[in-house]
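Practice problem: predict the structure.
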Amino acid sequence: MTIHVLEPGLLTTVQDRGRWGSQSLGVPVAGPMDDFSHQLANLAVGNPAGCATLEVTLAGPTLEFRDDITFAVTGAEFELYLDEVVVPMGVACPARLGSVLRFGPRGAGARAYLGVAGGIDVPPVLGSRSTDLASGFGGLGGRRLQTGDRLVLGPMARGTARRVAPIAPLPLPDGGARVRAIATPHTEDDGARCGETALDGLMTTQFTVAADSNRMGYRLSGPPLALADETSMLSAATPCGTVQVPPSGHPILLMADRQTTGGYPRIATVISADLPLVGQLAPGDWIRFEACDRGSAVGALVAQQQRLMQCTEWRTS
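Answer:
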C-alpha cells in the first residue's frame, strides 16, 4: 500500500515518537512537535501510538491514496477535502484506491498529523523513523516531502480502535498561549547564572515567536533578560522544553530537533503536558510563561495521558 505525494505542502515530514537512546552519542531525538495529536491520530486508525505519521506544518499537502486505506487527521485545524468532499478531523475516514486528500486553509494551530492504518513504513534509523532535518537522516532520506514521493505503508495492527466518546482535542493557540514552566533552582549553577531579575522577566513578559524559529527551537522576541553571570559555562543536557538565555538576553525555547547539549544557561523548562500546545505555535504568535511546581507538572501529564486512554477502546478483529 502506498501514498503518492502530488503536492508536498510547506514542511511535511515523517515522524514517530522520536529517536530515544542515542543522545549520549550526540544524536537528537526529533519526533513530533505535538506528541498528543500524533498519538491521537494513530489511535483513531487503530495503530499503536508509536507508528509513524506525517507532520504537516502551516500549509498542507495533496496526497493520492494508491490503495483502499483508513486515515485520520488531528492537531491544527485544516479544511480537509477527500475527492472535493469535506471530511472531518479527529476521526477515522475511509479512502478508496485513487482518492485524493487535499489540505485546505488552516485555522488555529500550526501542525497537523496524518495517521494512516499501518503507519508510514520508512527504514528505521537508530530505532526510529523520525525525520531529523538538521542531521539529514531518518524519514524519507532525512528531508521534507517532495512532489513525486511515494510512501509505503506498514501492515495494519490486529486490533482496531474506535472512538468511545468524542473528546475535545487539546486547546489550540488563539494567536498565542500561556504555558507552564518549572524554574531552574537558584541553588543550581544555571539558576544562579540567570538570577532573580532574569527569572522575573521571563515570567512577566509576553514574548513573540520569531520568524527564524523552527523545529530545533523558537527564538523569542521581547525585552532582553539580564543575566546575573554572563561568563562561559560547560555544556549541559537539553531536554525538550528547555528555555536557554544566550548572551543577547533573548530566550530560546528548545523543541523536538534540539541539540543534545547546550552551553547557554537554562532558566526554566516547559512542563511535558504543555509541550504539545507549544508545538502548535507559529511564527508571530505570542507566548507567556507561568511558574509551575514538579508535583503539578506530573499531575498534568497523568491527566493528559488519561484523556488519550479514555477516548478509544480496543477490539480484537
